[in-house]
Amino acid sequence: MTRKMWGLIPVLDCSQLLKLCPSQCKLSILPITTPAPRADSPQRTMSDQAFVTLATTDSYAKGAMVLGQSLRKHNTTRKLVVLVGPHVAEPCREVLGSIFDEVCSVDVMDSGDAVHLALMKRPDLGVTFTKLHCWTLTQYSKCVFMDADTLVLSNVDELFEREELSAAPDPGWPDCFNSGVFVFSPSKETHEKLLTFCGENGSFDGGDQGVLNSFFNTWATADISKHLPFIYNLSSIAIYSYLPAFKQYGHNAKVVHFLGKVKPWNHSYDIQKGEVRGHSQPPELCQLHPDYLLLWWQLYAKSVVPLLQRAYGETSLSSGFFDANENQDKHEDVSGQAAPLAPPPQKVSSEERKQRWEAGQIDYLGDDSFANIARKLDSFLK
Q1: Is-contact 229 245, C-beta < 8 A?
Q2: 272 and 232 in a common domain
Q3: 298-348 tens-digit pLDDT
Q4: Which of 23, 95, 273, 306 is 20 to 30 A from 217, alpha carbon to alpha carbon?
């Protein structure tokens, strides 16, 4: 199938979900040449359990690659499965096939809920309804779903001791769980009920998180054992909203979640200096912790880019690396689009900084960086 043909595959909205027949909701396994056995792969002892992620674009596919390699790096004993939408390029699918045990091709499901998505200023989240396909993976008894913008910092196989639906609280509204990491049990019955629920009720936020919180509506009150500790889904946004807590507990983090519109792949990486470069968004919109961002890029550069280069061959590949020789006045983000470097920040008074902070205009990459705030905290705590 060519990339042009992929464009003909329909995008479904809530009103169309109920019209799907069971055969249309099933996953189809994408035929990919089985890669040679990985020399560094641990022996799998739990073949009926799996980590699952989703990629609907090439950018998110690269995020999934980093996630998969981070799970491999920390010696998971579970299978790795990735759901891919029709618009993911063939070379990216090939690389995913060399990292994941299963690459499953799925149709894209879109909420089509422009109103609620507009409230979140995230129109791109409608396609996250595609995540609901994960309940059709009935060859597994239990799974852990992880968004493609998460990064594993240590082994998290203990998550499989939890039951459906276990998840960590969302930093924006802690009585809701964040659907970036959750434990679930694949079931055709649950999948059908979710589709019916979508058709009848939609989503209060336009994305999968609203649907799942409404469907599993007793999460906040019924069973505390289904509340995952925040260290299993550490939001990069929450780091700055409650910095003292991060300073106290952050060293125990097991999974970091790069929430928000700006993702690690929207930056670029200076491989010579080992530094992450800025991005095309204003600094106040970036809430990604620089240490975790650097970890993401280091793993991407070491364990993903060589696979992409081999898969793309002679075809042009935008790796996201910054080349000072070719790009002295600008840098490229991972999509290959040129983005001007931000001008040097102007010095502002303490009073003006305070006013900007209270207005939510925080310079995360400059005076209000984590390192500067931490130093200020240390001075008060001594």
Answers
A1: no
A2: no
A3: 999 999 999 999 999 987 787 888 765 544 444 334 333 333 334 444 556
A4: 23
Residue of 125, 124, 149 lying closest to 263 (CA atoms): 149
Structural domain includes residue 37: no
16's tokens = 């169309």
- Identify the residue whose tokens are 């960590």: 168
DSSP codes, 74-128: TT--EEEEEEE-TTS-HHHHHHHHHHSSEEEE---B----HHHHHHTT-GGGGGG
- Domain co-membership, 153 together with 232: yes
Provide the β-strand partners of residue 275: 270
- Residue bearing tokens 């739990």: 46
149 and 7, same structural domain? yes
Is the residue at 257 inside a domain? no
**In sequence order, which residues have a C-beta less than 8 Å from that of residue 59 and are 6 or more positions away?**
263, 265, 334, 335
Alpha-carbon gap, residue 140 to 138, rounded angstroms: 5
Could you give the number of structural domains in the chain? 2
* Whole-angstrom distance, CA of residue 256 vs CA of residue 208: 20
Cα-flanking dihedrals φ and ψ of residue 53, to 5°?
-140, 180
Q: Which domain holds residue 364?
A: 266-381
